[in-house]
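STRUCTURE:
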């Protein structure tokens, strides 16, 4: 027992070490990501910067370097945290925060609409705007955004996104007693860099979930 404080400190330091290694936002890149227009434009800018520093490198070489670094660093991290995986999964202690490793030119925009009857739909929330209402504050909270942004912004959202749509519809019904139906969707937005031509057409509606106050489909 006299050594317990030192033992406890060592265990905490070990857990923090594995969490830091796992949470490092390492680039999870693939050749598909690097073929995107936004990535190609970024590579071109880095080629110009390096050439200004008298470092001659071609765009193809820079892409190959980025892919190699991504592959090797991810493999090294997997090897380091492998002994910790069993304990981590059993206790639900994952801390994989690989954020913003590459620019996504097709992000999702959360849109919530409601109707009091008929086809007259009105907007309740459209990301990233907020009117300060309880519904907008709830969906903009960083923990709640982690639910719909992670589970819904993908080609085939799962049960978590559907549960979120049901939950937020209930919040809208509470805030608007006269609303009869709520529609939740995650529109696909096309992002363009300043050098590219603006996107044509509106956002692409997708992952539509509708809920009625009476619970009917």
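SEQUENCE:
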């Amino acid at each position: 027992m006299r050594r317990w404080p030192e033992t406890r400190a060592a265990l905490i330091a070990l857990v923090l070490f594995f969490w830091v290694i796992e949470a490092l936002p390492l680039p999870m890149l693939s050749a598909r990501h690097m073929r995107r227009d936004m990535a190609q434009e970024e590579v071109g800018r880095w080629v110009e910067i390096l050439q200004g520093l008298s470092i001659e490198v071609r765009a193809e070489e820079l892409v190959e370097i980025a892919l190699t670094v991504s592959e090797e660093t991810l493999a090294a991290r997997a090897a380091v945290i492998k002994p910790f995986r069993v304990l981590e999964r059993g206790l639900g202690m994952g801390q994989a925060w690989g954020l913003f490793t590459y620019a996504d030119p097709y992000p999702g925009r959360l849109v919530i609409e409601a109707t009091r009857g008929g086809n007259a739909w009105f907007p309740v929330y459209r990301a990233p705007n907020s009117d300060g209402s309880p519904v907008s504050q709830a969906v903009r909270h960083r923990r709640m955004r982690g639910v719909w942004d992670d589970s819904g912004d993908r080609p085939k959202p799962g049960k978590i996104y559907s549960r979120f749509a049901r939950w937020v519809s209930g919040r809208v019904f509470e805030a608007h007693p006269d609303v009869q139906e709520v529609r939740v969707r995650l529109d696909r937005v096309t992002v363009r860099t300043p050098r590219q031509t603006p996107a044509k057409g509106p956002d692409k509606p997708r992952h539509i979930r509708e809920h009625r106050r009476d619970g009917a489909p």
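REMARK: The mean pLDDT is 84.
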